[in-house]
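2024-03-11 09:14:02 DEBUG pipeline.ingest accepted 1 chain
2024-03-11 09:14:02 DEBUG pipeline.ingest length=582
2024-03-11 09:14:03 DEBUG pipeline.predict start
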Amino acid sequence: MVGLFLAGDTCLKILGMALTAKQEAFIAAAIKGMNDSDAYRFAYDCSRMKPETVNRKAHELMQNGKIRARIEAAREEAAKQAQWSLNKAISRVLVLNDKAFDEIDNYGLIEKSQAHKALLDSTNALNRLTGVDRQITKAEEQSDSRPECPPFDLSANISPTFCSVSRAIDGGKTDRVVLEGGRGSSKSSYAYQKALDVFLKRPHAQWICGRRFANTLRRSCFANTLWAIDMRGMTIGKPGEGCDFDKTVSPMEITYNKTGQKIIFVGLDEPEKLKSITFEDSEAKIEILLLEEYNQLNSAEDARNVRQSVFRSDYSLEFDIFNPDPDEMQWANQEALIDEPGKLVHHSTYLDVPEEFIGKKFIEQAEALKKINPKAYDNEYGGKVTGLEGKVFENIVDFTITDEMIEEFAWIRNGIDWGFSVDPWVFLRIAYDSKRRILYIFGEDFATGLTDPRTVERAKGKLTKTDAEGHRFFKPYAMENLIYADSAEPKSIATYKQLGMNIHAVKKGAGSIKQGIKWLQDRAEIRIDKKRCPLAYQEFTRYTYELDKDKNVTTGLPDEDNHTIDACRYACSPLIMSKKEV
């Protein structure tokens, strides 16, 4: 360690301000050339402290105005006595560079030369003792306003399949990247690394990371971002530890300390939080959006609402990441097929990834599933839309039903499946052609959070007609307005009757659900107007038998995403219970 020692009178003059003995020791060590953490270890007992605690404590001491003033005064005095300056420090480095260049030019580079090492060490020590290192850093920052970060070769750390995506982003050819594919395709790893790459190059860019549910963020989005930062050799710590990035869990965010840029993690089950995000930097704007498990959002409309809520900048970059659902009708699968300006859809699998990235065991597991269950392999590892396994209804037809056809239906009934908060209240209108054994579903309404009187208004609105003169009328006891509903809610049924609705409770017994499903399966066709009844079409076409732990189809019927199916069973209950073949 190279150090500068001051004359006695000068030292007493500089160290004369009263502080604790340990603070005095810290100052003396810092003046001798130790860095902040080593000076703290010299002055205090740190045997039971973690390195990050030592760093934080040292940082806190250096924020003490008296201590900082004493150290800076001592360094200034040292600089005067040593006649050391910014210009001299630069000239020494230039001499080193010139000699190194001459030696390389004449003899080739001799690595780790003792002369070079001694000159480097002494220059660095003098710079640190006198504070010239800080002047150099300040001069560099003033000459280049862009934030500095360690050099990083992104292309060497990603699967080659994503190089074309990076070129499209860097060339301004895309502002929305949809990364879909199978397990182990490293699409998430790429997205986080590329998002971070763009984030570090744009000093006012802020980054939003989101998933549908907030309680899944910490082990996915948050952990993946920390991993991407660590991959670059940059440091992460708690506020005050002097790292490149600060991290906090509440609120869950990461701050890049050189620029104050933030990476904010949000659960999209609380969309109102997106609108309340603000930044101290007046020039700061959300420019990067990364959505993990994109297809877990409820709909394409929900996804649009998210991006419309966050982007307010001329520049924007969005990553949507998901493993395709086997169901070809799932909204994210459908959306990926649509060409949109600026959108790039990229498909990848583990077969695109170098083996050292994912490991031999992962590949062996994938190949084992391929032999046992090829269809499951195609979806899980191949990222293919394979179609739902074990569909309950194979007789669904998307069929346009006109108002004229509805007027001609001879047998019409209505069904209600009760719901309030999590599960929706569902009202369904059906018609049945007994000769051809065809069931028609032509009207629906559904909502959450509605009281019984309000749902009565909604149902009555669906049953009200208009006569030739334009007058609206409702006949509660017309057979086509008869309603069948689950008997499990007697209070709701009583309210409907009090408010003038003709409603009947459907009693459920052992095996009644399977009996009703079997009756629906045995119809020649179930014709659903997808435009009139989107929820019914979605639930009927996607309703599948339960799978066992090995993903084999069982005969179990899941009690979820079946609200319109239940309402249909109730509406059809007179037919299902009939002893006649209908």
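2024-03-11 09:14:41 DEBUG pipeline.report The longest strand covers residues 438-447.
2024-03-11 09:14:41 DEBUG pipeline.predict end
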